[in-house]
Design goal:
Strand content: 15-25%
Number of helices: 3
Strand order of the largest sheet: 1-3-2
Structural class: alpha+beta
Number of strands: 3
Number of domains: 2
Oligomer: single chain
Helix content: 25-40%
Radius of gyration: 19 Å
């Protein structure tokens, strides 16, 4: 699925081989994350992209930034209790952007019916106790503007 997207991302340095077609524009991006250089090569093909198509790019960028931050924290002797697969976020609401929501919807709808039902049931079971809790006081009575 990701290989057909109009936006692709890689982590190689500038000048690394580009296997994309000639209709793809390559953008080299260098980020300084706490003193560590993070390189990204973003390929953008001609044509219209859907909002959900930016999610894989955002995931790769977030992962690279998170990895650099975690490496720095660990090298400074710090410890992060959470890790990939820890599931602590299952006990609280996690905000999603519109593109993430659209991408998640697509992924769930692409599942076989039996698996889709299990995922939906699991989400509902986890959501019930979370939604029964009162919101934090910082949210009560806040207005936008």
């Amino acid at each position: 699925m990701a290989e057909n997207l109009p936006i692709t991302v890689g982590g190689g340095p500038r000048g690394a081989g580009d296997s994309s077609g000639s209709d793809t524009k390559i953008i080299d991006l260098e980020l300084d994350i706490l003193g560590k250089e993070v390189n990204l090569r973003i390929g953008v093909r001609q044509g219209q992209a859907r909002l959900a198509d930016i999610v894989p790019l955002a995931q790769v960028v977030c992962t690279k930034i998170t990895d650099a931050v975690l490496e720095r924290i660990r090298s400074d002797g710090g410890r992060i209790p959470c890790r990939k697969g820890c599931s602590a976020c299952c006990s609280s609401l996690v905000p999603l952007s519109v593109p993430e929501t659209l991408r998640l919807r697509e992924a769930i709808l692409a599942m076989p019916e039996s698996q889709r039902r299990l995922v939906q049931q699991s989400c509902l079971l986890v959501a019930q106790p979370i939604l029964k809790r009162k919101p934090p006081k910082s949210f009560v009575g806040q207005t936008t503007g």
